[in-house]
Amino acid sequence: MVGVYDDCTEVTAFCTVEATTYGYRPDLGANIFFIAVFGICLGIQFIQGLKWHTWTYMVAMTFGCLGEVIGYIGRVMMNDNPWSDVGFQMQICCLIIAPAFFAAAIYLTLKHLVLTFGQEHSRLRAKWYTWIFIGCDLFSLVLQGAGGGIAASASSQSTSDIGSHIMLAGIVWQVVTLIVFAALAGDYFLRVYRSRSTQTPSAIAILHTTRFKFFFAGLVLAFLGVAIRCIYRIAELAGGWGNDIMQNETEFIVLEGVLIVVAVLCLTAFHPGYCFPPMQQRQEASANGIIQKEKFDSSETANQVGQA
Q1: Neighbours of 297 (CB within 10 A)
Q2: pLDDT tens-digit readout, 106-157
Q3: Chain mean position to CA 70
Q4: CB under 8 Å to 126, separation ≥6 — which residues?
C-alpha cells in the first residue's frame, strides 16, 4: 500500500476504501466464518495427531490452519479499518503461505501409499517422495514468506513490486511442484491398477474399505482445491497491486477461502489415522523406534560410565 496514499491510516474523504489495495472493505461475516472453520479444524487436527501419533501430518496441518486463522484475523482488522497496515501484513503473509502446509500434508501420504501398494510400481523409492516434495514445498514457503514480508513492509512501489514478484515466483514454483507430484502419483496408481491382480491380500483389503475410498477421494479433492487456489493466486499477483482480480472479493472468497476450506475439511474428516491405518502404524512404529534407540544409547552410555 504505497504511493500517493502513503500517509493514509484510516478511511477519510481523501483516503477512501476504493483507494486501498483491495478496493473494498473485507466482508466481516465471511472472514469470521473462515476463522471459525480453520480454528475448529486446527483443534481437531491437534487431537487427531495426539490420538493417532501422525506427528508430521499433524504439524503440517496445524501450522497451515494456524496461518489461515491469523490471516483471516488480519482481514477482520481490515474490515474495521481497510487502511490497517498490521491487518494487511497479517493477511498477505499468512494466507499466501498457509496452503503450502496443506500441500505438504498431501505429499506425506504418497510415501505411505507406495509402501502399502508396492514400491515396485513406483518410479522413485518411497522415501524420496517425502524428501523431494517436502524440500520443494519448503523452498516455495521461503519464497512466498520472503516476498510477502517484503511486500507488506515496503515503503516504495518498486520494493512492493519486488515482494510481489518473489511471492509470484514462490507460487509458480508450488504449482510446478504440484504438477510433477500429480504426474508421478497418477503414473504410480495407473501401474497399481494395471497390476491389481498381484496385490497382497492386505493391500486388496485396504483398497476395498469404504474408509480408504473416502480417504483417497478426500486427497484428490484437497489436491485440486490447493492447485486451483494457487493458479488463482498466480493470476491475482501477475496483474500487479490493485488489479481487477485482486479487487474482486467474491472471487477471493470462492477461489481462496472456500477451496482451501474444502481441502482442509477433506484432510480433517478423512484423517489417515482413521481412514488409512498403515500410515498411522508406520509413523507410530518410527516414533517408537526412535524412543527405543534413545533408551539403548542412554543405557550404553551408562554402562560405559560404570565401566570407567
Answers
A1: 10
A2: 999 999 999 999 999 999 999 999 999 999 999 999 999 999 889 888 778 8
A3: 14
A4: 111, 112, 114, 115, 119
The rounded radius of gyration (Å) of the Cα atoms in the chain is 22
* Residue 280, amino acid: Q
- Sort residue 3 into left (φ over 0), alpha (ψ -120 to 50) or beta: left
Cell of 283: 509413523
pLDDT tens, 208-233? 999 999 999 999 999 999 999 999 99
The answer to whether 116 and 203 have CB atoms below 8 angstroms apart is yes
Supply the DSSP symbol for 17.
Answer: G
* SS3 per residue for 250-271: HHHHHHHHHHHHHHHHHHHHCC
Question: The C-alpha cell of 16 is what?
Answer: 477512501
Number of Cβ within 10 Å of residue 88's Cβ equals: 22
From residue 270, give the alpha-carbon distance in Å to each of 148, 200, 219, 267: 32, 24, 8, 6
The pTM for the full model equals 0.90
Residue 265 CA from chain centroid, whole number: 13
DSSP summary character for residue 3: S
Cβ atoms within 10 A of the Cβ of 240, count?
13
